[in-house]
Every structure is written in structure tokens, then in C-alpha cells.
Specification:
This protein has 346 residues and is an alpha/beta fold. It contains 13 helices and nine strands.
Length: 346
């Protein structure tokens, strides 16, 4: 099997998502803003959330709390053409189940979907799982950010826009009582989502403040306890999925609950091989590990094609591919259907 490499390769975003197409989004926002809700209401939804029992979801909610850095570039996710184009690349080039993001990015997707359909193409959002980020109030770098307020989608708005669930985060800091406030916000949100028969995707991150920044401390010992806390949020856990970071001894974490688990990707390593390795191990931990909700490790995988990296992760989750096989699939999938947008939108 060929060793993974990006030598002599660099994904060409401009070819896939040209600036002229990007500029049209603002024109729609100014001239036809109601297109967003019209597209949301017209979208065909799945009859079941996970018909094959698993989910692969692309995540892109980091700019909503002021996180824009990837590696040595402090503002790459602050370039909306780059971020949106890479999201579109995954949704148009792969069988990923869906997308999770803040309202502004979700609205951008509805607009692009409208433009594609106006050009005679098929909707790329039909039958996809669209999950709204409910909470980005813990703005990075602001004193007190661990009091992580809900300031994006409400359960009522998710239902109005016919989205398929809501995502929330608890950054657990034992010596900061504001953690308890965020736990309360999340529990109330689970109850609100249950009222609308919408799934909750709840993520815990064990954090400490060290050297002037928040550092993750996700060990099996910590996560086993947090899984118990999050599983008990709200008036029922009937629609709750847990979004968990992979760690050593992950089987203990999966054993702590009967709830379905999807794995998160974490900060971008700018090389997909470590993510492939973690996910291939994590999905073997126990049968309740049911997929992944991964963002920066797909959208910004160094020089590689986000769609190709997503294809590798899809193969791990749905076909039981090894990390090495996922790397091979990635290399074979680069630059597939690069005209998926420009064939319909000019």
C-alpha cells in the first residue's frame, strides 16, 4: 500500500469554489434574504436520523466563538471563502451524512444550495442531517468564557428551520463554579429539544487554565465521570447523543453509557493520519460508538483535499477501514468532481 503523502499536491480551493461564486452569496443576502428560510422549509429531510445506525457529521462552529487559527496561521478560519468552500467540498464530494454549524454558516449553505438548484443541479442538503450549534457564548480569550452562554439556535428555531438536532458543549473546569452554570444551560436545552422531538448532541471537554490558555485534559478517568453527568441532562435522554474525544483506554469511556457516541476530531493536526488512527481505534471500542462529528481535521488537513480526507473517515466509520486503508482512500479520492459547483453556478 502506498505511503500517505501530499508531496507535489495542494488542494486548489479557487478552482472548486471561485471568488465570483462566493460574492454571489452576499448579493442574495441583500436582495433576497427570505431565500434562506424558504430553502430550509423546502428541504427534504430523512425519515430517520441514522438509517444505517451511524452518523458522519462535518463540524464548523469555531469562528462563532472567535477561534480562527489553524497551525501557524492565526486567521485562516476567518477567511469565509476558505472555510465555506472546504465545507462545500465535503458535502458535494462525499457521502458524509451531514453538517453542524452556527446559523450564519448554515444560512450560507442554504443560499449556495439555492444557487445550485437555480442552475439546474440537485440539492446537496436534501436528506442530509443538519445540526444547529446552539451555544457559542464562551468567546475565546474573554474573561469568564467558561460561563458558556447559549446565543445561537434555540430549540424553537431549529424546529422552525426544519433542522435535525442541536449541539452543545460543556467545558468542565473543576475549580471554576461557572462550569455549573453551563451545565444548567445544557440541561435546559436538552429538555427544550426533547419537547420538539429533536436530538441533542452533547460534548464534554475537561479543561484546565495553564500558561494563559485553556488546555484539554481528556483522560478516560475524567471522561467516564463526565459521561455520567451529561447522560443525565434534561428530562429524558431518549434523543441524546454524546460527542466525545478519543483517548487512551477509550473502551472504559464507551462502557460508561448506553447512549450513542460520536467521536470528535479536536484541533487540526494538518495531517489526517493521526485522526484516522484515533477513529479506527475508537470505533472498535464498543458497539455504541456510532460515528464522528469532526471539523478542522477535515476542513484544514494541511495541503490535502478536504473531500478526500472525509472519504477516508467515511470508510473507517461505515466500512471498517483501517487507518492505513483510509490514508490510501484519501490519496485516491483527491480532486474528485471538482466542478460539482461550477457546473451549475457561474
Amino acid at each position: 500500500m502506498t505511503d500517505y503523502s501530499t508531496e507535489n499536491y495542494h488542494f486548489d480551493l479557487e478552482t472548486f469554489f471561485p471568488a465570483a461564486l462566493f460574492e454571489r452569496i452576499t448579493e442574495i443576502r441583500v436582495q433576497q434574504p427570505d431565500i434562506i428560510e424558504q430553502q430550509a422549509r423546502a428541504r427534504r429531510q430523512r425519515a430517520r436520523l441514522a438509517p444505517r445506525g451511524k452518523l458522519t457529521i462535518l463540524a464548523a462552529d469555531h469562528p462563532g466563538r472567535g477561534v480562527t487559527a489553524i497551525g501557524s496561521d492565526p486567521f485562516i478560519m476567518g477567511n469565509r471563502q476558505q472555510l465555506l468552500g472546504r465545507i462545500l467540498r465535503v458535502l458535494l464530494a462525499t457521502d458524509f451524512d451531514g453538517f453542524m454549524g452556527t446559523p450564519d454558516i448554515m444560512d450560507d449553505l442554504f443560499i449556495v444550495d439555492y444557487l445550485v438548484q437555480q442552475g439546474g443541479g440537485p440539492s446537496f442538503l436534501d436528506n442530509r442531517v443538519l445540526i444547529g450549534c446552539m451555544q457559542r457564548g464562551g468567546i475565546a480569550g474573554v474573561v469568564g468564557e467558561i460561563d458558556d452562554r447559549f446565543n445561537a439556535y434555540t430549540a424553537e428555531a431549529l424546529a422552525r428551520f426544519r433542522l435535525d438536532g442541536g449541539k452543545m458543549l460543556l467545558r468542565f473546569v473543576p475549580d471554576d463554579e461557572r462550569t455549573l452554570l453551563t451545565a444548567d444551560y445544557c440541561a435546559r436545552a436538552v429538555t427544550d429539544l426533547n419537547r420538539h422531538h429533536l436530538p441533542s448532541f452533547v460534548e464534554p471537554l475537561r479543561m484546565d487554565f495553564e500558561g494563559g490558555k485553556w488546555v484539554m485534559k481528556n483522560t478516560a478517568d475524567e471522561l467516564v465521570k463526565l459521561v455520567g453527568v451529561l447522560s443525565a441532562f434534561g428530562d429524558s435522554s431518549r434523543y441524546t447523543w454524546l460527542k466525545l474525544p478519543y483517548c487512551d483506554d477509550f473502551q472504559r469511556v464507551a462502557q460508561a453509557t448506553t447512549l450513542p457516541i460520536i467521536l470528535l476530531g479536536g484541533p487540526s493536526r494538518e495531517d489526517p493520519r493521526a485522526t484516522f488512527t484515533d477513529f479506527a481505534a475508537g470505533v472498535q471500542a464498543r458497539s455504541n460508538v456510532r460515528g464522528a462529528m469532526v471539523g478542522r481535521n477535515i476542513t484544514f488537513p494541511g495541503a490535502d483535499d478536504p473531500g478526500a480526507v472525509a472519504a477516508g473517515i467515511q470508510a473507517i466509520m461505515y466500512d471498517g477501514a483501517s487507518a492505513a486503508e483510509a490514508a490510501y482512500i484519501t490519496m485516491q479520492s483527491r480532486d474528485h468532481i471538482m466542478d460539482a459547483l461550477t457546473a451549475y453556478v457561474r
